[in-house]
Amino acid sequence: MSRRPSRPALSDLLLLLLILLFSLLLSFLFWKAIEVGADSAVRVKKSAELPLRFRYDGTFKILQVADMHFGNGAVTRCRDVFPSESARCSDLNTTQFLRRMIEAEKPDLVAFTGDNIFGTSATDAAESLFQVFRPAMESRIPWAAILGNHDQESTMTRGELMSFISLMDYSISQLNPPSFKIDGFGNYDIRVHGAFSSEMANTSVLNLYFLDSGDRAMVGGVRTYGWIRESQLAWLRTASQKLQQGIFPAPALSFFHIPIPEVRNLWYTGFVGKYQEAVACSIVNSGVLKSLVSMGDVKAVFLGHDHLNDFCGNIDGIWFCYGGGFGYHGYGRAGWPRRGRVISVQLRKGKKEWMGVETIRTWKRLDDGNLSKIDEQVIWSGGGGEDLDH
Ligand SMILES: *[C@@H]1O[C@H](CO)[C@@H](O)[C@H](O)[C@H]1NC(C)=O
Ligand SMILES: *[C@@H]1O[C@H](CO)[C@@H](O)[C@H](O)[C@H]1NC(C)=O
Ligand SMILES: *[C@@H]1O[C@H](CO)[C@@H](O)[C@H](O)[C@H]1NC(C)=O
C-alpha cells in the first residue's frame, strides 16, 4: 500500500528547480527590457486641454503669481522676514504658499508674471524651473508664464528659458507667435472659449495677451529697464483686431512684468491697495498705453516687478494692477505678508444659456495663515451682449 516516493520525488524536485530557474531568468529579462524601455522612451509633455473655456457655472478664474524669485529650494533663505522667522524660512515657503493658493482658489489658469526664478541665486536654471513650477504641474491646472528681468541671470538665455517653460507639463506658455518677426521671448495670446454646450462654445469670449517687457538696457549711456518694443505692439494690434471679429467684442486682459511709466501717475489720481515704493520702469515710453487704448479690448493689465506695490489704478479706462510680491527670496517687508492676486471673470446669463463676459473682478490673498482675502473690486462690467434669440 505504501509506494516508494523517493525517486519520483527527486525528479519532481529537479523539475521544480528548473521551472524556478527558468521563471527567474524570464523575470530578469522582463525587468531588463522594461529598464531599457524606460531609458529609451521619449518623455512626452503632459498637455493641458485646449482651448481653455469657461466652466458650466459661467466663471473663469485666473491666479496671478508675481515675482516668486526662486533660487535653489530648501537651501535658499528668505529675505525680509522677522529675525525670529528666518531660521525656518526658505524657497519651500514660496512653494507651500503656491500650493495653498491653488488649493484655496482652484483657478482655471495660473499666470506667472516674471522673475519666476532669481537667476543669481539659481545654480541650475532647469532645476529651479522644475522646482518653482512643480505645484502648478502637479495640480494639472493649465499655466502660463512670462519672464521678468531676473530669470535669465542663471544658466539659460531668455530664449532658452521660454522654450523650456513651453515644454513643461500643463504649460500653455509659448515662445513667440509663429510667422511674426518680433522682439523678446514669450509674446503670445491665449483664448478662452465660452462654456461647453453654449452658443459660444467655439468662440473666444475672453482673450489673454502675454508680453515680454525685457530685462535691462542702456539708453544714451543710461542704465534702465527693458520695455515692450514696437514689433511686439504691432503683433498685438493685429492679433487683437483679428480676435474682435466675433459675435460680441471679447474683452481682453494683458500680462507683463515691468510697469509702463504712466503707472507712476496713479499716485496722484488714485488707486486701490498699497503704493509703497517708487514704480521702477524704463525711461523709454514706447507707447504701450496708446496701443492698448486704441485696440479697445484690453480692460486690465497685470504687472509684477515692484514687490511692495499691490495696487490697482485706472489709466484712460484701463486698469493696471500689481500682483504684489509672492516669493520669500524676493525683497519684501517683514510683517507685510507675501501675496497673490486672483482675477475672476463671470459670463452673463442669457435667456437660455451663457453669453459673453459680464463682469471682471479681482482680489488678493495674503500668506498670513488664513489666506485673508483683501481689496476685492469690480474692474469691468460689460453687459455680456444681447440675447441671441431676440
Ligand atoms: C515657512 O515654513 C515653515 C514650515 O512650514 C513654517 O514653520 C514657517 O512659519 C514659515 N515661515 C514663514 C515666514 O511663513
Ligand atoms: C462647436 O464645435 C463642435 C465640434 O466641431 C460642434 O460639434 C458644435 O456643434 C459646435 N458648437 C457651436 C455652438 O457652434
Ligand atoms: C485668522 O482668523 C482667526 C479667526 O477669525 C483670527 O482669530 C486670527 O487672528 C487670524 N489670523 C491672522 C494671521 O489673520
Name of the CATH first level: Alpha Beta
Element order, helices and strands? HEEHHEHEHEEEEHEHHEEEEEE
- Label the structural class: alpha/beta
Number of helices: 8
Number of strands: 15
Beta-strand percentage range:
15-25%
The fold-level CATH name is Purple Acid Phosphatase, chain A, domain 2
Average predicted confidence as pLDDT:
92
Bound molecules: 2-acetamido-2-deoxy-beta-D-glucopyranose
Strand order across the biggest sheet?
A: 1-5-6-9-10-12-11
Characterize the overall form.
globular
Biggest β-sheet description: 7 strands, mixed
CATH homologous superfamily label:
Metallo-dependent phosphatases
Amino- and carboxy-terminal Cα gap: 99 Å
Low-confidence stretches: 1-5
Radius of gyration: 26 Å
**What CATH architecture would you give?**
4-Layer Sandwich
Helix content: 25-40%
- Give the tally of structural domains: 1
Describe the structure.
The protein has 390 residues and is α/β, with parallel strands linked by helices. The chain has one domain: Purple Acid Phosphatase, chain A, domain 2 (4-Layer Sandwich). It is built from 8 helices and 15 strands. The strands form 3 sheets. Strands 1-5-6-9-10-12-11 form a 7-stranded mixed sheet. The protein has a 6-stranded mixed sheet with strand order 4-3-2-13-14-15. A two-stranded antiparallel ribbon has the order 7-8. One 2-acetamido-2-deoxy-beta-D-glucopyranose binds next to loops.
